[in-house]
Write a structure and sequence with these properties.
This protein has 11 helices and 8 strands. By secondary structure, it is α/β, with parallel strands linked by helices. Bound molecules: acetoacetyl-coenzyme A. This is 3-hydroxyacyl-CoA dehydrogenase family protein.
């Protein structure tokens, strides 16, 4: 019988994690939202409040529904609070060791029927899965940024993921208003495998002073009808995250297309991570 998801956990409340919390809570599911410490928890709460506030302003959410959404979320710095969740989605930074260590801990906390999902964009779901004692219940559940807005989820099936596990996650994605696709465990899955070569190319065009950031973005936005230009999108994704994704894809495929343009690392080192830090290719208020 298909699993009922009435209470889920999200670990990591950065750009993606906070958005994923919003998606679940908006669809009537109780969420345990976990970060490493109280300060990070408060930051995550702020991201959620900002996003739902924007949805209210734009007429996408009533104030009543916003209050109900927030009431469904329990913020905590303790992983132990995840014990009775039927699903936990991990959205911590794109570092394999960090994710493996976390999955080892989660495996010991949640019940035997719970599903463990990673929102990784490019790391091996299989490697993360084998850090647990039960890799059959581990799956990729890859949302897109901004998660409350974009209606698409990649469900990543490893060679050992149980059929019921990915079928249940696929059904959940539909309940969340997302179109799911099932993909194999290859760096970048579908969307990022296609997207990141293009983004990297745009950055190198900017880096070589071939064209200005505004003109590069205008070419793709106005000339090609994309919702935003590639450099603005890099800022939205976060340059630190984009670097990790490109680096992983390059190491796995050795395709020059994915060798991160040097300026990305330089900007990350200088703290220019995009919207999340107030400055990237553009400056944000
Ligand atoms: N809940 C529900 N709806 C919301 C919302 C929320 N929290 N916040 C905003 N919205 C709605 C707005 O009301 C608006 O809807 P309407 O157009 O019907 O009014 C819509 O979402 C867009 O919001 P905004 O008007 O505030 O912003 P925008 O029109 O400038 O669009 C954007 C912003 C959605 C980011 C759009 O530019 C876009 O889709 N860009 C491309 C993003 C993209 O490519 N993402 C993928 C990145 S790669 C990735 O995520 C994978 C990875 O692993 C890194």
């Amino acid at each position: 019988m298909a699993r009922e998801f009435s209470k889920v956990g999200v670990v990591g409340l950065g750009t993606m994690g906070a958005g994923i919390v919003e998606v679940f809570a908006r669809n009537g599911i109780d969420v345990v939202a976990v970060e490493v410490d109280e300060a990070a928890v408060e930051k995550g709460r702020g991201v959620l409040e900002h996003s739902t506030g924007r949805a209210v302003t734009r007429g996408k959410l009533t104030e009543e529904d916003q209050a109900a959404l927030h009431a469904r979320v329990q913020f905590t710095p303790s992983l132990d609070e995840l014990a009775d969740c039927q699903l936990v989605v991990e959205a911590v930074p794109e570092q394999l060791d960090l994710k493996k260590e976390l999955f080892g801990k989660l495996d010991a906390i949640v019940g035997p029927d719970a599903i463990l999902a990673t929102n990784t964009s490019s790391l091996s779901v299989t490697e993360i899965a084998v850090a647990t004692g039960n890799p059959k219940r581990v799956v990729g559940m890859h949302f897109f940024n901004p998660a409350p807005v974009l209606q698409f989820v990649e469900v990543i099936r490893t060679v050992v993921t149980e059929d019921e596990v990915f079928e249940d996650v696929k059904a959940l994605a539909i309940r969340l208003g997302k179109q799911p696709v099932i993909v194999g465990d290859k760096a970048g899955f579908i969307a990022n495998a296609l997207l990141f070569g293009y983004l990297n190319h745009a950055v190198s065009m900017f880096e070589s002073r071939y064209a200005s950031r505004e003109d590069i973005d205008a070419a793709m936005k106005l000339g090609c009808g994309y919702p935003m230009g590639p450099l603005a999108l890099m800022d939205l994704i976060g340059l630190d995250t984009a670097y990790e994704i490109l680096d992983t894809m390059y190491k796995q495929g050795r395709d020059r297309l994915h060798a991160p343009s040097p300026v990305i690392k330089q900007m990350v080192s200088a703290g220019l991570k995009g919207r999340k830090s107030g400055r990237g290719f553009y400056t944000y208020a």
